Amino acid sequence: MLSVRVRFFAVRSTKSKEIFTNCENQTWDNNEENEDEVGMMDAVLNERSDAGSNAEEDQAQPREEKMSKRAQKKLLKQQKHEARRAVRKAEEKEHKKQEAARKRREWEEKLASVDEEERVKLIDARRGLKKERVEKKREEKAGKIERLRKAKEQGQNIVIDLEFAHLMSPNEISSLTQQIMYCYAMNKRSSSPGHLWLTGIGIDMETQLLKIPGYNNWMIEKESRSYVEALQDWKDDLVYLTADSEVTLDTLDSKKSYIVGGLVDRNRWKGITIKKATEQGIQTAKLPIGAYLKMSSSQVLTVNQVIEILLKFIETGDWKTSFFHVIPQRKRCGADSDAVQEVEQEEDYNGNADKQCEAKVCSDNFKTSAN
What is the pLDDT of residues 274-324, one digit of tens each? Predict the structure, then answer.
């Protein structure tokens, strides 16, 4: 069993290293910038996590030998999945490399087929386009930084509570880290970003977060203290979002700070967030999803999906649009078809239909990763 595990770690580590090397040398077009940025962070996060896992494996061999057969089977399945995922990513990178080579050949053939005067014109035109793209990217980057700066001063406070790390496995902590990465990427791209807070950052969470390239430069608040301590002057304006609350959120109050529980696989800890908020004397509320949609099944909204809904509402002021933007149609049932079509057509028109990750949603008993 151990040798099989080591083989899969070796395969994935090698492929992930290749991915990271390709990512460092890759130049992205403007229309691929956001997807590749997140993809690069994801690949590096996985690679470094592998290195840590290998080191921990050597130190924890006696404990692993006591793992149950079920746990061993689950671990092996996870390793196989990660190995396949690494191979798939490597194949995608290779495909992009081949496409770039094909375009380069076509360009060279085009230059070879014209006279010197026309060749000079083509080269000058291409240089002009490249200069325009570079300038556009520079302006977009400056715009994002300015929006994030303003959000830190006067944006809607959105807090991710990270005090549940001790209840999660290493894989779950890694999953939550990736969700946080997606949250920052979405907020950075948003036309109306929020003021993001990470509170209760413990050693385990910080170790994973520091593996994300550029994390130290993120324009958000990072607190080892709990939200109660970090925002003690505004305790009366704290609102913990939890599906178990009897209060339904009608709108977002710019004076309040909304807390999302950072907990993966919270089915093991039902009611933990409302219990925590109640004991701390914190207000609670739930998103009004039941007032706009009926879900076809009971599933979980991840942290990044809750954040995306909140960001979309900040931008549009419309819960229906926000839910339809995040929740795929195949997960809905009983919704007004005309309303669904109208919202989705509007999203297509505005170019907002593409997603960063697959949405998972809940039913009338809506439960989020914020529980």
Answer: 999 999 999 999 999 888 887 666 556 789 989 999 999 999 999 999 998
Amino acid, res. 49: S
Cβ(196)–Cβ(221) below 8 Å: yes
Q: Which range has highest mean pLDDT (25-39, 75-89, 274-288, 314-328)?
A: 274-288
In contact, 293 and 283? CB cutoff 8 Å: no
List the catalytic residues: 265
d(Cα 331, Cα 89) in Å, to the nearest integer?
Answer: 28
Half-sphere exposure of 136 (CA within 13 A, CB side): 10
| 151 class by beta-carbon count within 10 Å (0-12 exposed, 13-18 middle, 19+ buried) | buried
Do the beta carbons of residue 227 and residue 159 sit within 8 Å? yes
Q: What angle do CA 291, 292, 295 make, to 5 degrees?
A: 100
The residue behind tokens 């303003």 is: 150
Domain 155-331 falls in which CATH fold?
Alpha/beta knot (3.40.1280)
Give the DSSP H or E segment for 120: helix 116-154
